[in-house]
Amino acid sequence: MDQLDYKPLTAIDVVQFFWRWRKWIIGATLVAGIAGFVASMPVFMKPRFKATHIFYPTQNNSIADALLQDANQRQKDPLQFGEEEQAEQALQVLQSSALMSRLVRNFNLMKHYGIDVAKEAWPQTALQAEIDARIAFSRTRYLSIRIDVLDEDPKMAAKIANGIALLYDSVKTEIQHQVAIPALDIVERNLRAKQQQIQQVRDEMRKLGEQGITNYEEQSRAIAEEIYKAQAAGQTGKLQTLLEAQRNLANNGGAWLSLNEKIRLEEEKESNINAMYEKRKIDVNEKLSHKFTVSEATVPERKAWPVRRLIVVLAMMAGFGFSAIGLLFFEFYKSRLAKTA
């Protein structure tokens, strides 16, 4: 069999090809456009409405540190919008399983999306596919967080978008409590241990008090004055009593001074631990929003999907392309068969 001769394709050949098959190509393009128009009708593609909620994450992680410290001591302003780090953290929280599981439960999304657990082989996979197709989180160029929700029911779309923003607050608070609650327990145990330690020192000082030592400095000064007066007055009996008291004071005065200094230092530590305990208690018991809402989701009035004009245009482009390619292969094989005949 002789080798077939092929000539290079020129622009004139392309123009002649499309002109020769213009009726077929135009017909296929129109048919595809009509098919796209029909397929995008509400009967076949149920319209979906999009609701959007936008918020800025905050920078504060500790309520006590943000509100109860002096302005000069604060590392961050509690009213300052979050930056890139906080925006990335917010996206992680929004995509967390803790938030999504609550969202599914609060809005009964399994039923709302028409997923039959009894009939569906992989209901959780089907649910996740619906969530991925309908709910999107993104970071805007201004470092705010955007929540987009698509749904056939416009009211439900707005409810889900706003509900996700509310869940973000509660879930982030619970995540912080994973550290805040054990931290409170640790500080509380340290505070109790310090109080017990101080009480032991006080018990030792009380024993010294039972021996007549209640304030070494004042008692030492007072006894010295009384001894001087007794010596001046020649009161021998009183002088002996005072000298005995002075010896007792000298023998136990060092212990009293040591305990007095120790209790002063320990009470300062107790004060610091108590201040820390009050802060950690506030972090556990009080709540502060973790976001600044910029725009709450409202009930959308117009559908966002499907975009009928886009579907028709894409269908016509597909019809044009496939028909041209099909006719090109048809001519190629027709000419090849003619030459090999």
Give the topology, please:
Layout (H helix, E strand, L loop, with lengths): L10 H10 L1 H18 L9 E9 L5 H5 L16 H11 L2 H11 L1 H4 L10 H12 E5 L5 E7 L2 H57 L5 H18 L2 H50 L5 E5 L12 H33 L1
Antiparallel strand pairs: 1-3, 1-4, 2-3
Helix pairs in contact: 2-11, 5-8, 8-10, 9-10
How would you describe this structure to a colleague?
The chain is an alpha+beta fold. The protein has 2 domains: 11-181 and 288-340, Bacterial polysaccharide co-polymerase-like (2-Layer Sandwich); 182-285. Helices cover 67% and strands 8% of the residues. The protein contains 11 helices and 4 strands; from the N terminus they run H-H-E-H-H-H-H-H-E-E-H-H-H-E-H. It has helices at 11-20, 22-39, 63-67, 84-94, 97-107, 109-112, 123-134, 154-210, 216-233, 236-285, 308-340; strands at 49-57, 135-139, 145-151, 291-295. A 4-stranded antiparallel beta sheet has the order 2-3-1-4. It starts with 10 loop residues before the first helix and ends with a helix.
Number of domains: 2
Question: Unreliable runs, pLDDT <50, ≥5 residues?
Answer: none
Instruction: Summarize the main sheet.
Output: 4 strands, antiparallel
- In CATH terms, the superfamily of the largest domain is FepE-like
Helix content: 55-70%
